Amino acid sequence: MPPQGTAGQSAVTELLAADEPAPFSILNPTSEKPLLLVCDHASRVFPRAVGDLGLDPLTRRCHLALDIGAGPLTEELSKSLGATAVLAGYSRLVVDCNRELLDPGAFLEFGDGMVIPGNRNLRPEQKAARAEAIYWPYHRAIDAEIKRLARERRSPAVIAIHSFTPVLDGVSRPWEFGILWDADPRIADILLRKLADSGFVVGDNEPYSGRAPQDFTVDNHAEAAGLPHAGIEVRQDLIADDAGVARIAGVLHGIIDDLPTSIFGLPAVGHSRKAQRL
Predict the structure, then answer these.
(1) Is 56 exposed, middle or buried (0-12, 13-18, 19+ CB in 10 A)?
(2) Which has more confidence, 172 or 266?
(3) Which of 2, 139, 198, 229 has the maximum number of C-beta atoms within 10 A of its C-beta?
(4) Which candidate, 144, 143, 149, places its Cα nearest to that of 264?
(5) Strand 177-180 relative to strand 229-235: parallel, antiparallel, unpaired?
(6) Rounded to whole angstroms, what are the CA distances from 254 to 191, 194, 195, 250?
(7) CA 173 and chain centroid, separation
(8) Is the peptide bond prior to 207 cis by the omega test (within 30 degrees of 0)?
(9) 203 φ, ψ to 5°?
(10) What is the pLDDT of residue 11?
(11) Running DSSP on this structure, what letter comes out for residue 174?
(12) Tens of pLDDT, residues 212-221
């Protein structure tokens, strides 16, 4: 993580006013449970400094702006599991916290048939200001919570909560859940099996793949450190309202809370399986 220096502080001051939301929120910050939930796309908030990015109100609320239902689902799971959670505080259209900053998707210009005018032809200093104000503080918070939990008890498992639109680019997606993983199948295997046993249509690295280079948060904080991890994608129509969030949170709570304690605090395994699947 780059150090927070004078230039970074200046960028934060320029982009975020003192009365605007913080770039991240932490739930259950004193929990000792060896589990960290993260939600990269929890918010649709734009800093006032970027205006509306040239988008109408409907687009600013659609799946391009946030993972619909993912924030409330993460909050409910954090509460029910008693686990720490870190949630990003601003829209993925301002800067996508689950992308490398050099990835074109970090400052999305076009997606699902829509243009984001305010992200076109951004100057390097404009991207840097967004990164210093929003992206890096969020990732520093995740890093700090992992280190805290490791000191308190055992190295935590990291589970990223996302949601996906039922239709993308005119193509329907049949999965109700997607479980994303790469080098370490321990949590993914359990989620895949138990969700399927519960009658859900589950995608193994569908509709996105945990092996994709765009999957920055889990790769950077969990996989690189050998922590057990998985990404959970939930189809947005299942968690579009409070009742749906409560139902899905109940399903996931039962599975996550029953994860074997042998998973936690151990180095990652499963590289041979990864090789077989490539």
Answers:
(1) exposed
(2) 172
(3) 229
(4) 149
(5) antiparallel
(6) 10, 10, 10, 6
(7) 20
(8) yes
(9) -100, 130
(10) 47
(11) -
(12) 777 899 999 9
pLDDT of residue 272: 29
The neighbouring-strand residues paired with 27 are: 85
Residue type, 145: E
Band the pLDDT of 265: cuts 50, 70, 90. low
The larger pLDDT score, comparing residue 109 to residue 153, is at 109
Q: Which residues contact 259 (CB under 8 A, 6 or more apart)?
A: 157, 187, 190
Alpha helix (H) residue ranges in the chain: 6-15, 70-81, 124-130, 136-152, 186-197, 216-218, 242-257, 271-277
Q: How many CA atoms lie within 13 A of 184 on its CB side?
A: 23
Tokens representing residue 106 in the block? 């970090």
Q: Which residue has the tokens 């929990």?
A: 31
Tokens of 233: 């994608």
Question: Cα–Cα distances in Å, from 158 out to 84, 232, 233, 257?
Answer: 10, 11, 14, 13
Based on its alpha-carbon atoms, the radius of gyration of the chain, rounded to whole angstroms, reads 18
- Using one digit for the tens of pLDDT, what is the confidence trace for 216-264? 999 999 998 999 999 999 999 999 999 999 999 999 999 999 999 888 8
Through-space distance between the first and last CA atoms of the chain, rounded to whole angstroms? 30
pLDDT above 90 coverage of the chain, percent: 78
Strands 202-204 and 171-172: unpaired
Tell me the C-alpha distance between 96 and 103, whole Å. Answer: 10
Residue 1: band (very low, low, confident or very high) from pLDDT cuts 50, 70, 90: low
Interatomic CA distance for residues 255 and 277, integer angstroms: 25
CB 216 within 8 A of CB 100: yes
Residues in the chain: 278
Structure tokens given for 240: 């579009």
What does the alpha-carbon distance between residue 136 and residue 48 come to, in Å, rounded to a whole number?
19
